[in-house]
Amino acid sequence: MDSKFAPLQGKVPVSFRRLMALKKIGDDVFESLTAAWPPAPFQRAFGGHVYAQAMYAASRTVEEGLVVHQMTGHFNLPGTIDVPFVYRVRRLRDGGIYCLRSVDVYQQSNAAAQASSPCFTATLSFKRSEKGNRKWRDFEHQNVSKDHIRKEYACALEGLGPEDHPLAPGADSRWWEEQEAERWNETAPAFPGVDMRKVNMQLHNGSVERGGGKDGQGASRWRALHFYRLIQDEEDTSAGDIDLNLHAAAHAYASDRNSLFLLQGALGYEDVPTTMASLSHTVVFHGLAEYLCMVDGKGSSKWFVQEAWTTHSGDNRGCHNSRLWDYASGRVIATTIQDGMLRFPSHL
């Protein structure tokens, strides 16, 4: 791969491997090689890009067999798409089963303006599989049934396959679709890395009054479903080994797509121009690391689905919660929680 920084172009999405590609520029220091995707007609980077790439950069500093199982990241400054990200990894602890890393992420543009403050910071924990060890026990549970998605959202799924749902929009908001989508669609590159499909949840969600409805019950019932799968290239399909940390990063990347727009809809402000930004995002992966694998035995990309809702909002903030499911097996592979800033016009 060319070592020069490559902007995203055209309507053919690049693979996740290419999107996450890194160049080592120092001891535990890495630089991005492919630009982030812009989720609006601006030059700001999709936050899921820096989140996922920080995870992948940290994984480059751990021993073979260690796979990420938890990450919490804080978004400090907006990123741009025309400057490479620089990932500085710190080795906080190396143990036999667990190890801990932190990552500080910089861009030249905002680092200079903010006295070298990182635009993103994160802590991550990696784990080695204990399967087969003397103290290992085969136990596993989840608090929802394996057919929960198919049964709970039957009215929205309507017997359609994941690929039958439309591609997720640039920003999942009615006001954005009405005011920005046409201009953005003319110039925006295809969403890279993962194929994401939005389920029409209107029959399930119904309508809600502004402010979330009486006692917030309208907001509480609001749900979003997004199917997603890995976009691969020839290098992926020809490689014999699966990089589970790269696949974990793809799950984390998908989990941040259009996340805070759910809160806007749940609170009844879909048609109102809104200022929003991620403050922090936590992903916890469950069970064996092999569950994170995004391809089947033949190397084809598998479908996963994110089920999302909100639990709380107030004081210009809201909480986005989700479960990531292996759609075929009905297994929950991850839980996420995101704290976001929301600001609606004061005259409403």
Automatic annotation (TrEMBL):
Highest rank taxon of the organism: Eukaryota
Ranges of residues in domain Acyl-CoA thioesterase-like C-terminal: 198-341
Residue ranges constituting the Acyl-CoA thioesterase-like N-terminal HotDog domain according to the UniProt record: 41-126
SUPFAM superfamilies to which the protein is assigned, alphabetical: Thioesterase/thiol ester dehydrase-isomerase
Claim: Transmembrane is one of the keywords in the record: no
Keywords linked to the UniProt accession: Hydrolase
UniProt keyword annotation of Hydrolase present: yes
Protein name stated in the entry: Acyl-CoA thioesterase II
Matching Gene3D superfamilies: Acyl-CoA thioesterase, double hotdog domain
GO BP of this protein: acyl-CoA metabolic process; fatty acid catabolic process
Annotated family: Belongs to the C/M/P thioester hydrolase family.
GO terms for MF: fatty acyl-CoA hydrolase activity
One GO location term (cellular component): peroxisomal matrix
Species whose genome carries this gene: Exophiala spinifera
Pfam families per UniProt: 4HBT_3, 4HBT_3C
